[in-house]
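Notes from the 1:1 (GR / supervisor)

We went over the backlog. Supervisor wanted to see one worked example end to end before approving the batch request, so GR pasted a single chain during the call. The sequence is below; no edits were made to it. Supervisor asked that the structure be written out right there so they could see what the output format looks like.
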Amino acid sequence: MHCGARIEAITMSFITAITEIFSYPILCTPLIVGILVSLCAALLGSVLVLKRFSMIGDGLSHVGYGALCVAAAAGIAPLKIAIPVVIVAAFFLLRISRNSRINGDSAIALISGTAIAVGVLTVKLAGNVNIDVGSYMFGSIVAIDRSDVVISVVLSAVVILMYLLMYNGIFSVTFDESFAKATGTKVSFYNTVVSILTAVTIVVGMRLMGAILISSLLIFPSLTAMRFFRSFRGVVMCSAVVSTLSFFVGFVGAYIFDTPTGASVVAVNAVMFILFSIAGKIKQKTSKKQCC
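Structure output shown during the call:
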C-alpha cells in the first residue's frame, strides 16, 4: 500500500510538472528543440553504430565545444561558427579514418583534445566573456536564445527530411559498402551526407546536452533498440521512439528534481537500455523454448 501511494505521488508530480512546463514558453521551446534533436540523433545513431563510427560523434562534440568557445570570445552567434567548423571536422575525420596511416580512434583523440584546448585558451586570453562557456560542456536550457531555437528547428527538420529521402542509399552503405558500390550506389556521397547530418545534429544538441553528453544521445537509443530488434527498420523506428521518450522523461525529471538536463536524459537512456536488455533476453529464451 505504501509503495502504491509513492508511485501515485510520483505520477501526480510528473503530471503536474508536464502541465507547468507547457505553460511556460521558456521551458516549452527547449523541450520541442530537444525532442527534434533526439529524433535526429536516433536516426543517425543507428547508422553510426552499425558502421562502427560511434566515436566520431564524441570527437565532433569536442570540436563543437571548441568552436562555441571561440565564437563566444569573438562575440559571434555560436551556431554560425560551430556548424561550419564541425562539418569540416566531420569531413576530415571521415577521410582520416579511411585513407590515413593514423588510426581512426587516435585521430579523433588528437582532434577533439586540440579543439577543447583551443577553445579554453581562447576564452582565457579573450578576458571578459559574458557567455558561460561551462554550459556548452554540460548543457543548459537557458543557453538557447530565440535565434538558436529558429535555427535548431529548421536544421532538425532538414536533417529528418534528408534522412527520409536518402533512406535507401543510407541503408545500402550501412550494411555492405562493397556491394553498394558494385550496384552503382555513390558510397562516398552517402557517407558524406551522414557525416554532415551528424555534425549538424551534434552542434544543435550541444546547447541542451553539452559536449560531454551529446554523443550519448546518438549511441544509447540505437544500442537499446538492438537489444530487442534485429532488422534495420525495426532498430531505427524503436530507437526514434526510445530517444524522444527518454528526452521527454529526462527533461521533466530535471524540472522536478532540479538536476542538469543532459545528465537526466542520459540516466533515463541508461534505464531504458537495461530494461530492453532484460526484455531481449526474455525474448531469446522464449524463442528457444518455442523452437524446442
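Supervisor's comment: The mean pLDDT is 84.
Batch request approved.
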